[in-house]
Amino acid sequence: MRSLIKRNLLIFFRDKASVFFSLLGVIVIIGLYILFLGNMMVKNLEDIPGIRFLMDSWIMAGLLAVTPVTTSLGAMGTIIEDKKSSTYNDFAASPVKRSTIAGGYIISGFLISLIMTFLTFLLAEVYIVMYGGQLLTAGAALKVTGLIIFDAAASSITMFYLTTWFKSANAFSAASTVIGTLIGFLTGIYIPVGSLPAPVQTVVKLFPPSHAAVLLRQVMMEQAEAAAFTGAPHEVPEAFRLELGVAFKVGNTVLHPYVSFLYILLFMILFLILSLIRIARKQV
């Protein structure tokens, strides 16, 4: 399996186009935020102290939730290329177990997602500091690191399962474009969750990466929130958090972070089981 993982990593990072398009959704989000979204949001909330630090932390946390999805999906493009070139058939005909082949794709996708997301994390911290914010504390950085690893694992398993259903490069490319476009909306980055119609908010709350965004936002925005809402009534920061998707409310209950964590874990286990079923039936 180690050889398969190394081979998949080399194929991905040698293809500059694959690396670029796996980060396309991230690049679009950063571009939109720098060009007008950031200034628009800061202007609308300029009466809040340290609003720039707060909003930069918000957008970068959302970015870290999106990156594992788009990069792991880009990494799974190797499966499509292998099927197109019949390389996958050669693997399947060899003594190597199908589970080993699938494991090679999943783990390489996980490692690619991890590398690209950690790089994004470093750049996000630099960006926040450049605009007057503060670096995360050691404890907060450790929590973010754990969440990145967890999110990368969940994303790689999910994207592997979804990719096994595609038969052509065109279909995979179209799906990648759609996912890269929609994920910014479904994680409440382009438009704050509280500003969306109720049915759309429900869809957002059902979308697992949105819960990853919630977890990351709660950690990365903690310092900025403490400075921005010092002395404010409890209702003010709570309303702000619900509006921007820093917390989710279902009915009259604000979900605890562990609910979001368990929700993502549930989906990860579900897609792992579904992937194992497809492998057992030789459908991969």
Describe the structure.
- 77% of the residues lie in helices and 1% in strands.
- The chain has helices at residues 2-14, 16-22, 24-44, 51-75, 77-84, 87-93, 98-130, 138-163, 169-186, 198-206, 208-220, 222-228, 235-243, 257-280; strands at residues 249-250, 253-254.
- The chain has a two-stranded antiparallel ribbon with strand order 1-2.
- The longest helix has 33 residues, at 98-130.
- It is elongated and about 65 Å long.
- The model has no long low-confidence stretch (mean pLDDT 88).
Could you give a quick summary of the protein structure above?
The chain is built from 14 helices and two strands, in the order αααααααααααααββα.
- Gyration radius (Cα, Å) is 20 Å
Outline the low-pLDDT stretches.
Answer: none
Structural class: mainly alpha
What spatial form do the alpha-carbon principal axes imply? Answer: elongated
Quick one: biggest sheet?
2 strands, antiparallel
Q: Tell me the span between the first and last alpha carbons.
A: 16 Å
- What order do the SSEs take from the amino end to the carboxyl end, as H and E? HHHHHHHHHHHHHEEH
